[in-house]
C-alpha cells in the first residue's frame, strides 16, 4: 500500500510540474506579443492625442502655443517611420491586435505610409519653429492649395512636397496618411 501511495504521489507531483511548466510557457508566449501590441496601442493613443491638440489649435478651439504644437508634432514623429514599422515587424495576427496580416504581405506600402507620417510630422515641427507667436496666413491652407484631390490633380509626394506646403495642409495630409493606413492595414473588429 505504501508503494502505491508513493507512486501516486510522484505521478501527481510530476503532473503538477508539467502543468505548471506548460502554464508558464504559455504565459511567456502570450506576454511576448501582447507587449508589442500594448506599445503599438500606446503609440497610437499618443499620436491621436497629439493630432487632437494640433487640430484644436488650427480650429482656434485652443490658443496657439508653439511649444505645445511642436511637442505634439514631435510625439507623432517619434512614433512614426522606422519606430512604427519596427513595432509591426512579423506580427500580423497577434492576439488582441487590430493589425491586419496584410502588413507583412504589403510591407513596402506599410513602411511607406509610416515614413510619410513622419515626414508630415517633421514639417509640422518646423512650422512651429518658424511661427513662435501665431499660426499666420502662411501656415493656413489657401484656395488652390489642394493637391492630390482628383484624377487629374498632381499627386502629393510627402518627401517632395511636405516642406513647401502650408502647415495646415501638411496636417491634413498627415491625417489622410493615418486614414489610408488604417483602411488598408487595420482589421475592423466591430
From TrEMBL:
**Entry's Pfam families?**
Cytochrom_C_2 (PF01322)
Q: Which domain of life is it from?
A: Bacteria
InterPro entries tied to this protein: Cyt_c/b562, Cyt_c_II
Q: Where is this region: Disordered?
A: 128-152
**Gene3D superfamilies reported in the protein's UniProt record:** Cytochrome c/b562
Please state what the protein is called.
Cytochrome c
Q: Which organism is it from?
A: Agrobacterium vitis
Amino acid at each position: 500500500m505504501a508503494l502505491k501511495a508513493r507512486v501516486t504521489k510522484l505521478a501527481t507531483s510530476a503532473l503538477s510540474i508539467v502543468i505548471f511548466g506548460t502554464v508558464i510557457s504559455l504565459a511567456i508566449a502570450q506576454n511576448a506579443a501582447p507587449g508589442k501590441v500594448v506599445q503599438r496601442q500606446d503609440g497610437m493613443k499618443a499620436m491621436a492625442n497629439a493630432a487632437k491638440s494640433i487640430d484644436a489649435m488650427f480650429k482656434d478651439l485652443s490658443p496657439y502655443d508653439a511649444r505645445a504644437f511642436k511637442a505634439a508634432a514631435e510625439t507623432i514623429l517619434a512614433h512614426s517611420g522606422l519606430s512604427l514599422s519596427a513595432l509591426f515587424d512579423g506580427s500580423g495576427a497577434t492576439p488582441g491586435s487590430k493589425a491586419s496580416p496584410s502588413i507583412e504581405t504589403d510591407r513596402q506600402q506599410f513602411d511607406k505610409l509610416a515614413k510619410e507620417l513622419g515626414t508630415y510630422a517633421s514639417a509640422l515641427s518646423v512650422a512651429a519653429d518658424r511661427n513662435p507667436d501665431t499660426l499666420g496666413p502662411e501656415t493656413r491652407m489657401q484656395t488652390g492649395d489642394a493637391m492630390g484631390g482628383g484624377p487629374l490633380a498632381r499627386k502629393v509626394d510627402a518627401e517632395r512636397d511636405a516642406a513647401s506646403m502650408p502647415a495646415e495642409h501638411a496636417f491634413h495630409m498627415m491625417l489622410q496618411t493615418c486614414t489610408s493606413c488604417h483602411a488598408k492595414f487595420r482589421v475592423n473588429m466591430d
